[in-house]
């Protein structure tokens, strides 16, 4: 995640579920030798300086200005917009964590409005991040991540009559 902080410290300081939003229960699928459906729960994350800095790196690499001042752009940055951050847990991955944090640009003035930037999750941070989500899900939604995945699986089975 960030070079000057350990993964644990970065996650503790920068990963917060948005208490004003509800998780989205859904499903996804992969094709192995046939379609394999699995349950998902997506969370909206609060914006933090650390997440913005990571998204800004991806945005700058795509040729756009960052949303916050950086060493490269101390005075020239796009302060008219923001990012919406999302993270998913699922019933497919062994550790139940999605592959990335998604950052979507929200700015009527930006050429990349609505674009999705991907923040990869390092392997050594995956369990720490899942534990952080689980801790916050229990506090905010009064349910563990495992309970939320079970609930999502029930919705999936009821709504689509899909065999998982």
Describe this structure in words.
The protein contains four helices and five strands. The protein is α+β, with helices and mostly antiparallel strands. The chain has a five-stranded antiparallel β-sheet with strand order 1-2-3-4-5. β3 (about 80-90) and β4 form a beta hairpin. The protein is globular, with a radius of gyration of 17 Å. The model has no long low-confidence stretch (mean pLDDT about 90).
In short:
This protein has 164 residues and is an alpha+beta fold. The chain contains four helices and five strands; from the N terminus they run αββαβββαα.
Secondary structure class reads: alpha+beta
Overall outline: globular
Order of helices and strands: HEEHEEEHH
Low-confidence stretches: none
Radius of gyration: 17 Å
Biggest sheet descriptor: 5 strands, antiparallel
Q: Mean of the pLDDT scores? A: 89
Number of strands: 5
User: How far is it from the N-terminal to the C-terminal residue, by CA?
Assistant: 33 Å
Given the structure, what is the number of helices?
Answer: 4
DSSP helix fraction:
25-40%
Lateral arrangement of strands in the main beta sheet: 1-2-3-4-5
Beta-strand proportion: 25-35%
Notable characteristics:
alpha+beta; 164 residues; globular; five-stranded antiparallel beta sheet; 32% helix; 26% strand
Which helices and strands, and how do they pair?
Blueprint: H1 7-14, E1 24-31, E2 35-45, H2 49-61, E3 82-90, E4 97-106, E5 116-120, H3 126-141, H4 145-160
């Amino acid at each position: 995640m960030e070079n000057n902080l350990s993964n644990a410290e970065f996650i503790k300081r920068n990963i917060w579920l948005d208490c004003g939003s509800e998780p989205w229960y859904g499903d996804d699928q992969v094709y192995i030798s046939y379609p394999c459906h699995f349950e998902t729960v997506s969370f909206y994350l609060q914006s933090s300086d650390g997440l913005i800095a990571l998204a800004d790196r991806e945005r700058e690499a795509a040729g756009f200005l960052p949303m916050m001042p950086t060493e490269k752009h101390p005075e020239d940055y796009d302060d008219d917009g923001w990012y919406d951050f999302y993270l998913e847990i699922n019933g497919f991955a062994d550790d139940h964590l999605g592959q990335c944090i998604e950052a979507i640009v929200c700015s009527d003035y930006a050429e990349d409005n609505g674009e999705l930037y991907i923040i990869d999750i390092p392997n050594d941070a995956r369990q720490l991040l899942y534990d952080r989500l689980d801790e916050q899900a229990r506090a905010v939604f009064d349910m563990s991540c495992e309970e939320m995945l079970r609930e999502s699986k029930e919705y999936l089975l009821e709504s689509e009559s899909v065999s998982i």
